[in-house]
Specification:
The complex is a heterodimer of chains A (93) and B (1000).
Chain A (H helix, E strand, L loop, with lengths): L2 E4 L3 E4 L4 E5 L13 H9 L7 E7 L7 E7 L4 E7 L10
Antiparallel strand pairs in A: 1-2, 3-4, 4-5, 5-6
Chain B lengths: L12 E10 L2 E7 L3 H7 L4 E4 L6 E3 L11 E4 L7 E5 L10 E4 L13 H4 L8 H5 L6 H13 L13 E14 L3 H12 L4 E4 L17 E3 L2 E2 H13 L4 E4 L2 E7 L3 E7 L6 H4 L3 E15 L3 E3 L12 E3 H9 L8 E6 L3 H11 L3 E6 L7 H8 L4 E3 L1 E7 L6 E7 L6 E9 L2 E5 L2 E3 L2 H5 L3 E5 L4 E5 L5 E3 L9 H15 L12 E3 L23 E3 L4 E2 H9 L5 H8 L12 H12 L3 H4 L13 H5 L16 H6 L3 E5 L2 E6 L7 H14 L2 E4 L4 E6 L3 H8 L12 E7 L5 E11 L2 E6 L4 H15 L6 E4 L4 E7 L3 H8 L14 E7 L2 E7 L7 E7 L3 H12 L5 E2 L2 H10 L48 E8 L11 E2 L12 E9 L4 E9 L8 E5 L4 E7 L14
Parallel strand pairs in B: 1-7, 8-9, 8-15, 9-12, 15-28, 17-24, 18-19, 18-24, 19-20, 34-44
Antiparallel strand pairs in B: 1-2, 3-4, 5-6, 5-7, 10-11, 10-29, 13-14, 14-15, 16-25, 21-22, 22-23, 26-27, 30-31, 32-33, 34-40, 35-38, 35-39, 36-37, 37-38, 40-43, 41-42, 42-43, 45-48, 45-50, 46-47, 47-48, 49-50
The chains are: A mainly beta (93), B alpha+beta (1000).
Chain lengths: 93, 1000
Amino acid sequence: MFLINCPFCGERDQSEFSSGGEAHIVRPKQPTELSDDEWAEYLFMRKNIKGIQFERWNHVHGCRKWFNVVRDTSNDKILSVYKMGEKPPVNYK
Amino acid sequence: MPNYRIHKTEYIDETKRVSFKYDGKTYFGYEGDTLASALLANGIHLVGRSFKYHRPRGIVSCGAEEPNAICQIGSKKDLTEPNVRATELELYEGLEASSQNCWPNVKFDIGGINNFISPLIPAGFYYKTFMWPKSFWKKVYEPLIRLSAGLGKSPTEPDPDIYDHKYVHYDVLVIGGGVSGIIAAKMAAKNNFKTLLVDDKKILGGSTIYQNNESIKIDDKLSSEWLKNEIQEIKKLSNLSIKTRTSIAAYHGYNFLLAKENLTDHLPEEKKKNKIRQRLWKIRAKKVVIATGSIERPLVFNNNDRPGILLSNSINKYLDYYGVTCGENIILFTNNDSAYETSISLHKKGIKNIIVDLRKSARSELIKQAESLGIKIYFNHVVTNTFGYRKINSLEIMKLSEDGNTTVGNKIRLSCDCLGMSGGWTPMVHMHTQSGGKLDFRDEDQVFLPKENSEDQISVGSCNGDFDLENIIDKTVNKINKFLDIDNQDYQDTNIICSKGNDKRNIWLLPNKIPLGKTKCFIDFQNDSTAKDIKLALKEGFRSIEHVKRYTTTGMATDQGKLSNMHALGIIADTAGVKMGTLGTTTFRPPFTPLTFGTLVGRNVGKFFEVVRKTSMHEWHVKNNAEFENVGQWKRPWYYPKNGENMHDAVQRESKAARDSAGILDASTLGKIDIQGSDASEFLNRVYTNAWSKLAIGKCRYGLMLNEDGMVYDDGVTTRISENHYLMTTTTGGAANVLSKLEDYLQTEWPELDVYLTSVTDHYSTASICGPNSKKILNKLFPNLDLSDENFPHMSFKEDKLENINCRIMRISFTGEQSYEINIESKYGHSLWKMCIEAGKEFNLTPYGTETMHLLRAEKGFIIVGQDTDGTMTPSDLQMDWIVSKKKFDFIGKRSLYRSDTVREDRKQLVGLLTDDPKEILEEGAQIVSDVKSKPIDMLGHVTSSYFSPNLNKSIALAVVRSGKTMKGQKLIIPMENKNINVTVSDTIFLDKENKRLNA
């Protein structure tokens, strides 16, 4: 059970959060101009990495804020958290 | 009655005699006994029958690893408990226990026949045998297997015991109260770490606490005396908590651990009452010290499973801790020094014993001590067979060849009444691996050890492969100092004498002249798997340990292979000619020992099982005889039966009243989201398929919300309360998810929008009044409100006061009737409802529930998201193209509406169905076909909603059918078990297509 450091509330138990999948997938500004393949790429394709992954989490039973998490999926260690709109930390790739 | 209690110990209170029943017979033990020690004191070894061959089995160990001595406790339907380990169960007055897996009784068991037909029951027997004929499975094989399978009996009535959960936080958690755990806990607590020490036994001290050999000493004291002193010391430390009778069940990530504390299992029945039985501790620790020790390994030889064959160290504990000897003529069979401790202890108490040692020779101080006491030792010998049916009475030994692969010379037969075996020690690495740690293999003593210690978890003591006392203490101290970054000098000058040697001769499967196929060399005692089974699995091509395990069921019993997994691995490695370290292990999964369901659920039983949400009108519904339906967590009135009506009759009456005069529905459960901000209109434009910017203040609009994949997600009416203020309603079940989804888009995709969302579902109660007389009732409630269609038309909103309390009134309709939804602050909901009922009396205002609501809306072809849709329906599939804006640049899901798959014409589409026989009501979920003769039958779709409409006096249904849009008027068939029902595809709107009733 993770401990997640919500950037707004501080460290809380995982049971207060819900996971929102891969981070930094930007919704296309003009979806109507995309081909089926391009739209499918946005809609369905996810990396599902073994290793360092950028993810979205929501403090759903807390402040209800969404934020980003850098997690190593091979050992579940959370390496960093940062707010929506902030740039991902450069030292993880 | 024989008495094997031969001396007094400080752990057994001989002034407190305890009587208990085992298999119906009364025995006596003492306070401090476990069930197992009390049975052994009474000379009872035979405690059960094995799972597959029904061989007689006896107590093997003295702890959590016990595979055989598992019993059924009590006989009451609600309190009986199966699979309790007699080696862990503390004895109490009135305890009733019985053996399992035997019939008619443990001494004479019919299933014992399996032992003689055992060549017919090889590994994978079930997979190989019950394959054919197919029809036999259900009627013959399965009932037979079920009859003979399983251990023990489950209680058949709810558990009346109380269980509890508690969260705690510590700086350091120490698991295991043996010598290394005690040292670790003391060091941590003395250095200002808030520390918790847990141990599964009644008292601390592990296996050192009853140690009484003069050649193993600390600071010139017996190691047990030294340790008792340490325990006294740590009990004084203020920031150390000690929990005994507490075992760690699971070690999850981020140092989150679950521990089970036994609070009353050791108490007599009358003292258990009204007390918490077990508590589940949910522990967060910054650092964890694992000091779980190790367990002794059995040896694998022919007939190594007879009652009277125990682990050597367990014989020692029964003797020195419980004062009980396991026999009067004992043989110890070993490949290492630890059996010598047992031997010397037995000798001291005058118990005759001899040693059979696999090693060619060994010269430790301990062995010299044994020799000097005159104990007979057979070096370089192996036990090749044992004899005795219900208990061992003799055995055969032979000399080992130079390489240890075969036996040589003559058999020597030795008589005995007990055999102790010691195959070395297996470190308990469960906790380490559960936490995510990996293992290394150490070849010298063939053990898996914790590797890659992370910064917040460490293993010390024998679970880390440090087996002799000197090593244990020195290494524990050094490691803890480093781990906690402290400099503790307490043990600097500790003087340790340990005369035990470390050499070992490891042979996983001991050699025998008898062909393996004719032997019974047990590996897993509880699941009856033998060395032969493992070899057979390998012969049949299984290679992975995980596969061999499942095929042979080795390690899959309630003991989870604590005694057997290593031997299975060793034999696989030897047979396949690979190094054991390269094989890896099976996964160590929680729980370490079985947990009761009660412990897991704690207090969340009965009415605390799940959160229940009730509207403020709930009491009225209860008083008026409502039947309730669960909708999410909500309790909603389903229908209100009168004078013994059944559901059908009640629904017919309610829906007729709603159309003929007036009906009232508690609509408080609909999700309500308050939306405010200067970009609120733009936000709605983006989340709904239709346009919102032009919605006038005071008007309402129905909206359909899609997922980004174009599928219908939710629907509801949203009201514009003022320029920048909307009130959105959602489906009852979808409210929380809709809010989350909207928040997601708002925070992550469109942070530039000035919009604030607040859930107000619980803030307002809603009474929805519909029917031709609804306006008259509203007029009585709100005499000052102009209810004319000009001033207050359909899809609009007004505010007014009811007895000075503000109300929001929406004229919206989910029934097709003229209809008003009155919203009031929840605390006035009940009064509002009662006033509506009172005002409606003269108009036969009839309360109706969800079932009637469903029927009324189905007559009008209104969909229910989640009933008529299932996450694969687009607006077009629902024939709702009218609600999808063509002009809007974008909204959630827009692009997906013209993906190649969503524009297919042969998608399943919503249609109406009319049965040829108007009285025939279809079953919801029934499949729809066009031809029942062709095989396989082509399934076209299924019925989603179906009712008998009293207003139309016929059966109506909604369904999704492939290419349904083009099938109007076409005949289809609903094949049921006994008949085929003929239907005709129709429009989805069955009543009042012109919407005349809305303004009637």
